[in-house]
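tool_call: predict_structure(chain=1)
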Amino acid sequence: MNSVAQRTGSRLPLVLTCYGLAIGGMALGIGILLVAFLVVIIPLNLYISPTNSLVLSLVAVQGLAFPGIAALYFRYKGRSLRGFIPVSVPSLRQFGLVIGAWIGALVLVLFGANAVVELVGTEPAGNAAAETAAENPEFIPFLIPLVFLLNAPGEELLFRGVIQGLLRERFGPAAAILLATSAFAPIHITALIGSFDAALVTIVILSIPSIVFGAVYEWTDNLMVPTLVHGLYNATLFAGLYFASTGGA
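tool_result:
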């Protein structure tokens, strides 16, 4: 009994640290945005359109804050971030897995979302980025490259590379995937629009692709693989918004 309690106690600080990294990364991103507005945008009386605001958010959060919080943590621990996270050009087999996981994530989310909505009777919450894209469909072709350059790499670095990697050391792969997902999906609540119940539905749905991203990372031991799957998944959603908003024009 005492040994079980000791193991549980030793694991809890790590879990809290990983959740702290997720929350800290988001807080740092918001702080960077706040500084940008207070120091540059407001003093210069610059107009920031909704699409420009979305780009600024991607740069601040996924481009700067998520990699920044990861680097600061590993520096504090005296560990090498580069040595901790395996990244390489995917092999042909891994490229095939990227395509399969991308399609699989879309299919699982399609059926999973319908099942969750039917079960609880609540529609998912809206997403601020998706609404901005839908209202400005001409911007989507410019947004999709940012998904691959900022959105997917930043999130996969923090949530799969760092958080899931740290949790794997103590819990093993399966539990690490689930625990990393429990940090990844809820952090998106800052971008959701709607009731709390609707936000919970969306968080449950977001857990589905997160588990896929985590699984392919464990399978390949190459962060580039879930990054590509994540990028293709998000790009497909934005492409769908584009065609829905323009009628395919």
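agent: The chain has one domain: 2-246. Proceeding to next step.
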